[in-house]
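Hello K.,

You asked for the raw outputs rather than the summary table, so here they are, unedited. I folded two proteins back to back in the same session to keep the settings identical. This is the first:
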Amino acid sequence: MESPQALARDAWTPPRHEDLQARIRSTLARLSQTGALPTLPAAASAALGLARDPEADVDKLCRVIQTDVGLSARVLRVANSVALGRRNPARKLQEAVITLGLRKTCDILVAACAKRLYEGATVRAEELWNHSLAVAVACEELARTTRRVEIGCAFLPGLFHDVGRVAFFLADEAAAEVIESLGTEGGKEKAYLEREWYGFDHAEAGAILAEDWGLALELCDAIRWHHAPTEAGAARELATLLNAADAFAYRIGCGIGTAAPPSVDGARLELGADDERALAERIQAAWSEQRDLLG
């Protein structure tokens, strides 16, 4: 016999996008002490816009980066990291951007800015950030290994897949802590508890926030359905990779709490046990490096 939680989950009907969007915006604004939804720094928003602009060029991106000395230093540090194998270190920002490529530079810029948002998420800031970065790295590595989605589309959805949780902590820390505790200690699914409390879960909230920040709609759909990839429509492949990346983050010790969410069977991604072990090692190494570079 199915549990009451499972029955309730099966009976749940996803709301229309427009209704969900309005509900999430109004609820988070009402709960937030400031009355405002979480927002990305201006440089990150500009980078997301450039990532979608077919006419974007190195000079445009450099002008965005140069608005923040700290961001310029991070981009140079990443470009000159050992992992990229550059023999002659980049001394100018333009050289660093050319080394990384426009899309990857945008990823780094957004990640560096997003870290500031996570730092405001109370005592769980480090845990939330480490998990989000691990899923971003894992999703990118899975995209590279499975070739199911374009590699350049994998990092940012991974980075933002749980930004709804960050919003919950920023808007209503006490309620978010209760949900985390009940989910960890009581054995209930956190998404089920979130829908009971707010009327939507963290994946739905994250998708709407990411859309507001300028992420492409298909990537937002993958965020919304990363716990239920079969519902994601055209974004199903990316949602499947996000789901698997979530599991890999727990596997390398970067989970949120102790209980990992249900994950897609590795066989669906045609990954054997040896493949998974090798992937986990690469993800661990890449996460450690990027955490230090973005630190």
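The second followed immediately with the same parameters:
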Amino acid sequence: MNLLSFYREQVEKEILPFWIRAFDEECGGVFTCFDNEGKHQMSTDKYVWSQGRYLWVVSRAYGMSAGGKLDSDLETLKFRADRTMDFLKKYCLLPNGACCFLLTREGRTKAVRPGTPLDQSIFADCFVILGFAEYMRVFDKREELFEWTWRLYQNVEERIIAGTFRTEPYPVPAGMKSHSVPMILLNVSQELRQAATGFDAEKEAYLAEREQCLMEEILNGYCDGDGRIGEVLFPDGTRDDTVLARHLNPGHSVEDAWFLVHTAREAGRTDAVDQARRIVLRALSIGWDEVYGGLFRYVDYEYGVRPQGRDGGGAFSKLIRDTWDYKLWWPHSEALYALLLLDSIYREQELESWYAKLHKYVFSTFPNPDRDIGEWIQIRRRDGKPEDRVVALPVKDPYHILRDLFLIIDLLSHDAALDTRITAGMKEWRNV
């Protein structure tokens, strides 16, 4: 079995079937409020954040299956994509043009806690845009949906410029800036531009320009000369001695790096691709747990391991202190793709060695041993044992694993030499 076959099997037999079953046949959309093992459904509430992600997943799965890169039932995938799109379009927007954060199963708006605003997070809006962009692209529904999606994109930009946006569940303190904002906007602009290609040249050009601006903002405003991306900084790029300002998020750095590679390669910016490579290798070196293996959730920008600094107060600082040593599913799936993408460009032993080490850790740690359930046990303690608690939303995530595995399958499908090289260099991966 080569690497491409391995990843196809992971998608078709282990991960995607869970999310096909999780679809809400009655109301549309997807159930995501499961425990960490995926065994028990805890609620029928629907977080718009996750609904947008699910729309992206089933739309991309359809496109890859139609193109012969996956073997999944097209009718089933299209039905789920159509019904999820309908659910979101009907229920997710508030009168102010922003997305509601939480809906009931039937689509009624719901506050997370009494008195909290309904539009709690701009990330919900962004994931809806991502889902609609992929749905439009795959099913050629741009005539019907592009303007609706474009208005939401403009609403997001207007709130960011005005400083009226919210970022729950990780609110950014007043007077500071968050890497997560330009990072998600870069990805949203990338995917919406793909939907605009061949449909609206003016908007395509605007989005391409936004990508370049956001790439520069990230590289020059958050990344230092050592390849470390600061997560929460002062507007001038400096930090104080609080744990919030000192912490790094290796998973975010790796994920954003491949966003940067996608934009930089299209623009012919080899310097930016080189910088993205530096970001990935630095995040892995500073974030890797030399005792148990795997990537820490948070580390200190100077010393690595446990984030240092005084407690500035707030839920975000507490989260960093309490969960810094967790091993989460999403940084690891992001790193699998980022390393393969970079190795397709550089063909370096350092990248391939990191990939082999990461692959062995990931597939011996995260997949659910109960094959009847499948998916991954997504949240682990430092030693790899399951930790049944939430880390952002109280959901099992439908997005990161499948997105990264789809991207890997697409990459390997177009680069047989990469597949042959990695497969030949890994003696252990078949036995994980």
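The longest strand covers residues 46-47.

Happy to rerun anything if the numbers look odd on your end.

Regards,
P.
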